[in-house]
Amino acid sequence: MAPTLLVTGGAGFIGSAVVRHLIQETEATVVTVDMLTYAGHRENLAPVMDSPRHHFEREDITDAPAMHRLFETYEPSGVLHLAAESHVDRSIDGPAAFVQTNVVGTQVLLEAARTHWEGLSGDEKSDFRFLHVSTDEVYGELGETGKFTEETPYDPSSPYSASKAGADHLVRAWHRTYGLPVLITNCSNNYGPYQHPEKLIPVVILNALDGEPLPVYGTGENVRDWLFVEDHVRALVRVLRAGTVGETYNVGGDCEKQNIAVVRQICDILDEMRPDALDGSHHDLITFVEDRPGHDWRYAIDARKIATELDWAPQVDFEEGLRQTIDWYVSHRDWVRAVQH
Q1: Which of 49, 135, 138, 181 falls 20 to 30 Å from 149 in CA-CA distance?
Q2: Each residue's pLDDT tens digit, 57-106
Q3: Annotation marks residue 137 as catalytic
Q4: Within 13 Å and on the Cβ side, how many CA atoms surround 262?
Q5: Residues with Cβ within 8 Å of residue 187, at least 6 apart in sequence
Q6: Domain with 138 in it
Q7: Has residue 249 been placed in a domain?
Q8: Is pLDDT of 52 > 90?
């Protein structure tokens, strides 16, 4: 029997990629739960919104009665929890919303899932899974060498990463205290189509298309590990199906890049694609701006555990993924206008 999966944050960037994959590539029934704040958009689900196997529920994960109702109504066999406030700059300006959604919301969802799970029996109970999707930012920052492993001590730098670390700890506590069958993934920086225009890669693409300055924090030498969103989705589905209950899996792209190198690569591709778009090169638009507070120097993921135990590896290299992403934003300016208003 095909599973019914509840996906929180399913109208966001990564969440909607999960929902589209599940509807288009599997037989699962999907319940998308999203509050449709600034980062969640129905447009992200347009390719699957009319599927008879897709149900959309506009609800807040901090609303306990609503969450219990969803579990009672749909009786999911699994949860992919992606709902989160996720932008570091916004967390610095307004941390309370991050604590409320990422910490309180996760606790509410865990309790609703536990109540549902405790009422199951037999295979339904043993097969149920709660997958919490987190970030590598919970580990803090790295120097010039080394990589984050699943055993790296938590050392979050921003209100965003602290709130995600808190959520991770709650998920583990619900497993250890109540036996809830949980899984956790910590991923590196995602990129790809449908990413909200406030993030680095879409900001650079869209500003470049409009001939606007391309803002780069500090010296641009901060390093991130980049992961194409569809590779991440494959990892999540793999962990949900085959991961060991109670375990954490780091998901990375094995693709370390300085921020300035990413910006320059986008400029190179746009110079090639649109040589007459500007008087000069898109590189001329690069503008260095004041660094943000608590800006972690380097992130890098050691993804050997998920590779070894679950036979997952990224399939899309950065050049290919970046070209796909740029092509998508060039041809979806209507989407950009819709989500920016």
Answers
A1: 181
A2: 999 999 999 999 999 999 999 999 999 987 777 888 889 999 999 999 99
A3: yes
A4: 32
A5: 133, 134, 135, 136, 227, 232, 235, 250, 251, 252, 301
A6: 4-192+228-255+300-317
A7: yes
A8: yes
Question: One of 57, 59, 60, 160 is an active-site residue; which one?
Answer: 160
Q: Is 329 a catalytic residue?
A: no
CA–CA dist 26, 32 (Å, integer): 15
CATH of the domain at 187: 3.40.50.720
* Beta carbons of 133 and 87 less than 8 angstroms apart: no
Tell me whether residue 214 is in a domain: no
Residues 6+ apart with CB under 8 A from 93: none
Distance of CA 146 to the CA centre of its chain: 23
Verify whether residue 57 is a known catalytic residue: no
| The one catalytic residue among 34, 60, 85, 136 | 136
CA nearest to 266, candidates 202, 328, 222, 221? 202
What is the DSSP pairing of strand 286-289 with strand 182-187? unpaired
- Is residue 16 one of the residues assigned to a domain? yes
pLDDT digits (tens, 9 = 90+) for 123-171: 999 999 999 999 999 999 898 889 999 999 999 998 999 999 999 999 9
- Determine which one of 34, 59, 60, 137 is catalytic: 137
The alpha carbon dihedral of 162, 250, 129, 39 has a sign of positive
The pLDDT, as a whole number, for residue 201 is: 97
pLDDT digits 0-9 by tens, 245-303: 999 999 999 999 999 999 999 999 999 998 888 888 999 999 999 888 878 889 999 99
**Domains identified in the chain, total number:** 1
